Amino acid sequence: QVQLVEGGGGLVQPGGSLRLSCAASGSIFSIRAMGWYRQAPEKQRELVATITKDGSANYADSVKGRFTISRDNTKNTVYLQMNSLKPEDTAVYYCNADLASNRYPSYRDYWGQGTQITVSS
Q1: Average pLDDT over residues 35-61
Q2: pLDDT > 90? residue 29
């Protein structure tokens, strides 16, 4: 069974920083892209950033220049460094992985349980 476990959420003041992590574990065959999505109250889930296996990153316009996504393929872990946080960044952040497991060797999306980020003074 594959799991994505997130960490690093919490409450931060505007202008502050947080770093999220997400580790994939279990019977993993291969991981292609990994990424972060977020969902604010009464809004649809939206892409924040994605990163390919070779490190090519893509960002939502709203976070460009403030957020940085990275990954450690040896640890099956993706990170999101969030700087200059704004109240509008408040949301539940979800980790995503395009992953093939040893049990189900076709690639499909896996999701973490979500971690709350609240930006408020």
Answers
A1: 97
A2: yes
